[in-house]
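Reopening this ticket.

The earlier resolution said the output was attached, but the attachment link was broken on my side. Pasting everything inline this time so it's all in one place.
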Amino acid sequence: MKLSSHSHSLIEQTLRTVLEVFPASKEQLAVTDIHIQPRYDSGELIIYNDDDEELARTVIEEWAENEYTDDQFYAEAESLFRDILKSWQEKGKLDRLSIMKPYSFVLVDDEKETIAELLLIDDDTMMLSEDLLKGLDEELDDFLKKLLEE
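Inline output:
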């Protein structure tokens, strides 16, 4: 997704607003997912918690100005948000939030259906990349089929 530096900064600023909602403290809040909902038709970026409470909102004009298909837009948005969140995780920006672990950042569509889990934050669980998991379903199905045939 080719975005201007202004749009990219606006996206990061909006995500940063969410981090400010959960400042480091001794009290850990029970939030399991932070939902990120980009909308290319209106350019809106809405971020909310499990209870559908809005945490942040902005408008990315470039999204509304470009013509996207659903699949194209969400694939590019997934990559964009995943890159930002992974970078922040590597810098330790997500370690001090007052959210009980595990919790996830999730990309959702207009109907709030999950498109992708962008990042799972947990002390002892690692989220494997999709490339590593490709074909796992087929392998497990083949294994089960062979096991049942014996």
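Reporter confirms the inline version is readable. Helices lie at 5-21, 61-65, 70-90, 130-133, 136-149. The chain has five helices and five strands.
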